[in-house]
TrEMBL record:
Family, as annotated: Belongs to the short-chain dehydrogenases/reductases (SDR) family.
GO biological process: glucocorticoid metabolic process
Organism phylogeny: Eukaryota, Metazoa, Chordata, Craniata, Vertebrata
The protein, known as: 11-beta-hydroxysteroid dehydrogenase type 2
InterPro entries per UniProt: NAD(P)-bd_dom_sf, Sc_DH/Rdtase_CS, SDR_fam
Amino acid sequence: MDDYTLPFWIYLCVLTMFVGGAMKKILASHLSTAPTLVAWLGATVLVERLWAFCLPAVLLLTLLGLTCCIYSATRTGPPSTNLPAHGKAVFITGCDSGFGKAAAKRLDTLGFEVFATVLDLSGEGARELQRTCSPRLTLLQVDITQPQQVQQALLDTKAVLGLRGLWALVNNAGVCVNFGDAELSLMSNFRGCMEVNFFGTLNVTKTLLPLLRQAKGRIITISSPAGDQPFPCLAAYGASKAALNLFIDTLHHELEPWGVRVSTILPAAYKTGQSSNHAYWEQQHKQLLQSLSPALVEDYGEDYINETKELFQSHASQANPDVTPVIDTIVQALLSPQPQVRYFAGPGVGLMYFIHSYCPYSLSNLFLQKLFMKKKLMPRALRKQSGFDLNLSLHNNNNNNEEEEEEKLK
Ligand SMILES: *[C@@H]1O[C@H](CO)[C@@H](O)[C@H](O)[C@H]1NC(C)=O
Ligand SMILES: *[C@@H]1O[C@H](CO)[C@@H](O)[C@H](O)[C@H]1NC(C)=O
């Protein structure tokens, strides 16, 4: 027991606090805390090094005191009380299903005045909202890619609001038209994603901004980690979300003087919208096979294209159906006195961003490839090539043998 001296215990306390601080930051999963996390980890290493010098107890006690000061200084204070929901009007796009429908219901329950846009006013989602929500909720038919429908929604919203401003816009509507290698994604898929996720959201945001500025309100946008990180097979969707992220981040600066707060929510994979609609993806797949040039199908192979589709479907079917973390985050972004610029909603997203931001490219790349797409097949041409190489070497061996035999014959 002689080994367990006072300095050892003090050292252990300091280390525990640093490791605890780091763990707390990891568990909180906020990107904004990632630099603090790095500082914590750095300090941990520093303390560990200092220990090697076997510092005297007095010095270590000073260090412990200092640590306590830093710890209490960086600790977040008691959660400030949220703003009241009552009397606040919120406009949400894409409420036919998924996050939009769930958010519309929750916000209505909380007392917000909800303007929920749907693609189909007679659809299942719209009818459910009508049935379950209070008369405060207004349903609007809007395809966000149709500027005249967006304009009409503005007029309808103004008619209800009168002279009041709009507290918040929740940009939720979005699509993922296709899933597959970029070379196999049709131009129409790239344009389709851009049209909804980028241009649609852009037009809605610009249209409602005067009302949002008037209320010194908020813009909350549901984006995707695929807009920041190169997920395999999501080039079309990811590129449109990347454009959206940059637009929203720019708005964040520009609207600060107006008092409009801008937040982006980055959710984990959830079962929403078309993602678990088997028939929809089969239809998309058939269309894709028909639209691709025979040369491309030949190079990649139909079995390869089929495998991609099946991987995506199994991925989608395993996604979490409980969207509560995302809805909680939307509420937080709406009512927190100090909304964050970026929110990570759902398990693992914070960790994913941490790896992407602070680990070497090779590691984050490996993480994306191994975790997201576990392809077994290579494109057909590449398989043929390695088979061809094999044949060639066998053939060469045979040739060599023949030559040898010929030589023997001579
Ligand atoms: C929305 O898009 C349409 C068509 O491009 C355009 O005429 C309209 O001005 C846009 N709205 C805003 C507010 O910019
Ligand atoms: C690929 O899928 C299509 C459509 O689902 C099917 O008709 C075809 O037989 C499949 N091809 C291969 C090689 O598995």
